[in-house]
């Protein structure tokens, strides 16, 4: 992966997480923000299918690729 692709992915993830969590739930403390982001990342990686991966989760794609490498 080149740096511009990584930056694009990071930007999209940050934007999406804000829209789907922070702007809707209005956390009041840093602790609440951390807990929300931890939950969001877990759902994003393990429960939410992504169009780019034929609606598989990123975790499934990652572990499938790891099996191919091993």
How would you sum up this structure, described in words?
By secondary structure, this protein is mainly α. The protein has one domain. Helices cover 74% and strands 0% of the residues. It has three helices and no strands. The protein has helices at 3-25, 30-46, 58-69. The protein is globular, with a radius of gyration of 14 Å. The relative contact order is 0.08. The mean pLDDT is 87.
Ordered list of secondary-structure elements with their pairings:
Blueprint: H1 3-25, H2 30-46, H3 58-69
Using brief descriptors, characterize the structure shown.
3 helices, mainly alpha, single chain, 70 residues
Order of helices and strands: HHH
Helix content: over 70%
Which stretches are low in confidence, meaning pLDDT under 50 for 5 or more residues running? none
Cα gyration radius (Å) = 14 Å
Tell me the structural class. Answer: mainly alpha
The average pLDDT is 87
* Beta strands, count: 0
Strand count, sense and barrel status of the largest sheet are: none
Number of domains: 1
Strand content: under 5%
End-to-end gap: 20 Å
Globular, elongated, flat, extended or rod-shaped: what is the shape? Answer: globular
**Count of DSSP-assigned helices:** 3
Protein name: Transposase
Pfam family, one: rve_3
Domain Integrase catalytic: 12-58
């Amino acid at each position: 992966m080149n740096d511009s692709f990584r930056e694009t992915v990071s930007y999209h993830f940050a934007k999406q997480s804000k829209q789907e969590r922070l702007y809707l739930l209005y956390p009041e403390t840093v602790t609440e923000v951390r807990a929300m982001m931890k939950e969001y990342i877990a759902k994003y990686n393990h429960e939410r299918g992504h169009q780019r991966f034929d609606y598989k989760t990123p975790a499934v794609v990652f572990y499938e690729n790891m099996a191919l490498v091993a």
